């Protein structure tokens, strides 16, 4: 009887999943949070990310314009 419950429970188990890698920044945030502290927002990479996003949007617009020039707008 006990063994049947154990076997029935095993059917619903899922294989383990990979845990995401933890960066130093994430570790610092987790430790500070557990201590009840809040780290100041450093803005690390925010300007660089905005610049990269703007460049990506410009590339997309440029490609669409080139495609429309070559094939004509619908």
UniProtKB/TrEMBL annotation:
Residues 41-74 are annotated as: Disordered. It comes from the Eukaryota. Residues 47-56, 65-74 have a biased composition (Basic and acidic residues). PANTHER family: C3H1-TYPE DOMAIN-CONTAINING PROTEIN (PTHR21678:SF0), GROWTH INHIBITION AND DIFFERENTIATION RELATED PROTEIN 88 (PTHR21678). This is R3H domain-containing protein. It comes from Brassica campestris.
């Amino acid at each position: 009887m006990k063994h049947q419950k154990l076997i029935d429970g095993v059917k619903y188990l899922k294989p383990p999943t990979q845990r995401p890698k933890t960066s130093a920044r994430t570790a610092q945030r987790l430790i500070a949070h557990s201590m009840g502290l809040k780290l100041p927002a450093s803005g690390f990479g925010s300007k660089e990310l905005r610049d990269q996003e703007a460049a990506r949007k410009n590339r997309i617009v440029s490609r669409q314009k080139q495609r429309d020039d070559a094939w004509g707008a619908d």
